[in-house]
Amino acid sequence: MIPIEYILIAIGVIILYIIYYIFAKDAQLTRNIRAVASAVEDTNRQIYMIEKKLYELDKKSSVSDTKRIMNDDEIYEEIERSVFDMINPVKSNIRVIEQNLSDLSVAVDSRLSNLEGGIRQISLPSSVHGNDDSKITSLFKQGIDVDTISKELHLSKAEVEFVLKINQLR
What we know:
Elements: H1 4-67, H2 72-121, H3 130-141, H4 146-153, H5 157-166
Helix pairs in contact: 3-4, 4-5
């Protein structure tokens, strides 16, 4: 068996080693904390200097802005720029409206010509035949009035006037 003295000495050595290890780690952690604290302090110092420079620059720029007064030409140029920026979208909208109106005008003209062509193609009333048409126009060209033509051909006055309008005689 191992004597107790050796066991106590071994336990003492282990305890001393643990104490040494704890002190070594504590010293290392203290160094690390001081390094971090120093870095934080340097960073705070740099931030303070940057803020101070920004404050001075801001102060200088606000002083120079208040000292700067625009002359008449600069004012007119600024007004022209502002007006141009406001008018530009309006001009483009007007162009779009003009184009739409032009397209609409073309469409209306096309529809009108289609309607006129359709009206010309409308058949004559059933009582008016091709022979009556030529008779009506020839009698009208001879100077005979509408009432007389309608009585002679046994047609209504409206039918006679219709034929004359279709042939563009009235």
